[in-house]
Amino acid sequence: MNEFVKRKNITLTSPSHVTSPLIVKLKNPQNYLQKKWSKDRNAINWVNLVRASRRLKTEVKKVRSSQIYKGLKRALKNFVPR
User: Fold this and answer.
1) Cα radius of gyration rounded to whole Å, the chain
2) CA distance 34 to 50
3) In whole angstroms, what is the distance from residue 19 CA to residue 17 CA?
4) Which of 6, 11, 13, 26 is the most buried (most CB within 10 A)?
5) Distance, CA of 69 to CA of 71 (rounded, Å)
6) Rounded to whole angstroms, how far apart are CA atoms 10 and 61?
7) pTM above 0.85, yes or no
8) First CA to last CA across the chain, in angstroms?
9) What is the pLDDT of residues 37-79, one digit of tens each?
């Protein structure tokens, strides 16, 4: 089958370091809470740090997936079957 069907590989380039204003805005409190927890290791500081870290991780995933989706959409838009 591979002899008759031409395949085209689509390469998506995405930056390894994802930055958006929202991620930068979420990264600062997460860093602050990390420092606060390292100085005073109590349960309240830990819970706050975990919440901030999870929120940051969720936003990074959203931004990355939207970048991949946009890249695929762009690649498929320019795709011309042979």
Assistant:
1) 20
2) 9
3) 6
4) 26
5) 5
6) 21
7) no
8) 16
9) 999 999 999 999 999 999 999 988 888 888 888 888 888 887 7
Instruction: State the angle between helix axes of 43-77 and 21-39 in degrees (0 to 180), rounded to the nearest 10.
Output: 160
Classify burial at 7, counting beta carbons within 10 Å of its beta carbon; exposed 0-12, middle 13-18, buried 19 or more: exposed
Name 54's Cβ contacts closer than 8 Å, sequence gap at least 6.
Answer: none
- Who has greater pLDDT, 74 or 9? 74
Distance CA 55, CA 69 (A): 21
Q: Give the whole-angstrom CA distance, residue 48 versus residue 50.
A: 6
Per the CB < 8 A criterion, the answer to whether 31 and 50 are in contact is: no
* Residue the block writes with tokens 């085209």: 8
